[in-house]
Design goal:
Blueprint (H helix, E strand, L loop, with lengths): L19 E2 L16 E5 L3 E7 L5 H11 L8 H9 L3 E8 L2 E11 L2 E9 L8 H15 L4 E7 L3 H9 L3 E10 L3 E9 L7
Parallel strand pairs: 6-7
Antiparallel strand pairs: 1-2, 2-3, 3-4, 4-5, 5-6, 7-9, 8-9
Length: about 200
């Protein structure tokens, strides 16, 4: 199984928008309570929120993954379930009016974080959904003790590479044949927090 952060198209290369606080309250786990009281918007101002994954989301997330990625990269149901349930992993979901717009699966590995996948529906791309998901995942990784984060993306996905560079990621190396032995991947990394020297 290959982990990947972005599809071979321009699916998740989104422009950032800022969160706008609202007075809404959503019953969620304590770690994400603050995140769920913030909204951002897409598609000309439709508000969305980031919330933790719920078991009932699985089929929708799997269908989104199938639409975002070509068959060479898309996860099977067992693969997706494996990554969502893997120890140290978490999944965040972006939704508007109970419709899921996208999701991110990430994990902590000691002092390192890893973005496993980020998927956004076509209608919500380039509207800040991917940026909000990535920002919230990075925040959660940092709170879990990660000091840096890594991800993989296909070498032919210029939009994704540009998106991640805009978010502070840099290319660390190329892995030949990472995707099914046929497509190379770039490993991109980002420092989440600088150690305090003193």
């Amino acid at each position: 199984m290959q982990e990947r952060a972005v599809d071979a198209g321009a699916g998740c290369g989104l422009r950032a928008t800022s969160f706008k606080p609202t007075s809404g309250h959503f019953p969620v786990c304590p770690q994400l309570a603050a995140r769920n009281s913030k909204f951002t918007s897409y598609n000309g101002g439709v508000p969305f929120r980031i919330r933790p994954f719920e078991k009932a989301d699985f089929d929708t997330l799997w269908r989104i993954d199938q639409a975002c990625f070509d068959p060479q990269l898309a996860y099977s149901r067992p693969e997706m379930a494996f990554y969502i349930r893997r120890p140290g992993s978490f999944t965040l979901v972006a939704e508007a009016d109970a419709e899921i717009l996208g999701f991110i699966v990430a994990e902590t590995r000691g002092k390192s974080g890893h973005i496993i996948t980020i998927d956004v529906v076509a209608e919500a791309r380039r509207a800040g959904v991917g940026s909000a998901l990535l920002r919230d995942a990075e925040d959660q990784l940092l709170r879990a003790g990660a000091r840096a984060v890594a991800l993989e993306t296909p070498v032919n996905n210029a939009a994704a590479i540009r998106f991640y560079k805009q978010k502070g990621y840099f290319v660390e190396k190329t892995v030949t044949g990472y995707y099914s032995g046929q497509l190379d991947a770039l490993v991109m990394t980002k420092e989440l927090a600088r150690p305090v020297v003193g």
